[in-house]
Amino acid sequence: MPVALSPVRLHRLFSLVPVALALAACGGGSDSADPVVPTPATPLTLTGTAATGAAIAGKLVEAKCNGGNGNVNSLADGSYTIAVTGGQLPCVLRVTAADGTVLHSLATGSGNAAKANLTPVSELVLANLSGGTPASYFGSFDATAAAALTSAKAEAAVTAVVATLKAAGVDLSATGNVLTATLVAASGTTAGNDFDKALDALQKKLADSGTTLAALVQTVAISSPAAPVTALSNTPSLPAELLLQPAASNCSALRSGKYRLVYNRNHAGGSYDTEVLTVNATTLTVVNAAGEVNQLRANGQCRFLTPANGDAVVSQAGIMVLQVQDGGSFHLGLAFPEQTHPLSALAGDWNALQLERTTDNGPIHLSSGTWTLDATGKLTAATFCEDAVTCESGTLAATAGFPGIASSVNTSGGFNWTNSRDGWTDRVFLYRTGGGELLRVSLSDAGGHLALSTRVVASTLPAVGRVSTFWNITQNNDYTASAVTEGTNTVRSVDSAAGSFLRDNQFNATTGVTRPETLRVNAPRSGFSARQGETVTASDGSSSAVGRFVALSLRGTGIMSVGFPGNNTLVLSVNQ
Q1: What is the pTM of this model?
Q2: Which of these, 82, 168, 81, 92, lies nearest to 125 by C-alpha position?
Q3: Which pLDDT tens digit goes with each residue over 297-323?
Q4: CA angle 363, 453, 444 (to 5 degrees)
Q5: Would you list the domain boundaries of the chain?
């Protein structure tokens, strides 16, 4: 079989051709002929600067390339030059700063020379590109990883990280490619250039926000498109761009920035109850779309009062659940950091639970659903449950006669969710939490309903002894919202065979009286939970009627959506 020749072997082969021809022409081949010396291959040269805002001087810079490795100590200004004999692009690099911080970078492209700066930003780029820890990526870098690492992937990671940092107030957009841009690090009497000053700004952001680079790297990795689904975390946490923002003194989860407000009210249709707010977490001021300044008042840990004396609480994922005053009544609202997502982010299987009208001018009632969308945002399958329990399923394909329901980007933010046959259009917004999970929020133009959706993942049984403390805000069946109440429950026992657990729920916060309640996970469908209706004996000896409900944990948000079919109310339960 033919033998594949490497570029180096081909070079050596062709360097022998003229000599061989000359010898053949004169009948050569005698022992007295001069030996043929092959031309050596040009080594791969890597250059760059290692800096954190100040030069990383005199530290070992290591390079792992496709086919070879190399290392050298950085100079006083943080610059380095490594010759990697036998190495080819792409490469990954590593340096350890004087304080023990380990930074990584990468070099892609072709040819015998490349540039790679090693900075906290390059560490974030590698986290985004790999969807994991840069240290693990460097440690396992081999020929397979090298084959998968392209310039396009590196550029996409750079773009994503620069956008994240810009949203947090560190603007590197004018720097160029942060991996290859000119970086003059501050050293001795030499002042750093604008790139280096941006690194200083990032360091200050980390210090002021109380966030570590390691925490920021972890969040960037988990929220990366390259992260495996198994890496997504249901633990509520802030996304990377919020971790660098100032926090409220009474709530580390409330950070400064742009927030998308959505709420629902009972109206005839044709409008959407949404706007973008500007939140200053330090002063607790909120500026609405009309430029009006609203002052929040701290009312406990992560709890606030609005100017209209409405209640507002903030989940550990940075989502505010609140009473919004409109038309003299309070309505259920959510405010979450404004983000931009590609249409493909809508793809996958979604569970939803909401109050809504399913017919024009019909009653407002509880419903649930499970949807499947493709990468273009088109609905391809659905299970719809009119009363949140009794369901109808179908494959929503045009050939099957179902209406075409599809998504498109809305230039004002989020997406349009349109039924081309019936002519309705909902607004849809996505929020990615620090654990990488997505919350999908949709608003109807016909009646004002607000639907909350989460990725379909089977529920698991809780640990015995788990204590949950939470705030509840109730959305009534006329789209008004009641004030926040507090509650707590403790898991008493678990029945793995039945897929159920027993908890003691404090249903009277004033007296502290509890009652036993039985819940089943993955009922009525995967990802949901259900509390069975029954009459039980409370801790004070009284008889207590437990109402049936259907619950949906909104993954990664610290919020559970709970629907009561008996009176068509919806409760958002926010973990404290």
Answers
A1: 0.86
A2: 92
A3: 999 999 999 999 999 999 999 999 999
A4: 45
A5: 1-41, 44-222, 258-336, 343-455, 467-575
